[in-house]
Amino acid sequence: MFVRPSLSCVVSVLLALPLAAAAAPDDAAAPDAAVSTPEIWLNVGGFSRHFDRSNRYNERNFGFGIEWRTSEQFAFMAGVYDNSLGKHSQYAAVNWQPWTLGPVKLGAAIGVMNGYPSLKRGGTFFAALPMASIEGRRFGINLGIIPSMKNVDGAFMLQFKLRVN
To answer: How far apart are CA 32 and CA 82, in angstroms?
Structure first.
């Protein structure tokens, strides 16, 4: 069953991308196939906004993660966070982003995660979600969409990150 996001949720996301793009550095070069040195990013989790507002989900999903960007198109991600059900979750994924729209990288994060009782009884399962990233010299964001499926209420997720090298 697909649940439509609220109008305010859609407007928030549509406003976030141009605002984040405006925060990108003015001297941003055209994307190359490889970055000169791999980039290491740290995050402290993030926030989610669920399409179904009738449930009382935890939408402050704090935790810790690391992202190792090896090229303009690929990053490896791993971390832990408090999920929307108040449980601890872990993830490991490849963030493949072959398209760009100005300073925005577009693609999908594909990997494994756990901690959701309605999926594999909280065990490890495969996950893939559309992902957009905007990265400046030191700060960046990841914006993902979790699709609504049989046992999953969909949501937008926002993750803030800090480059450490």
So the answer is: 35
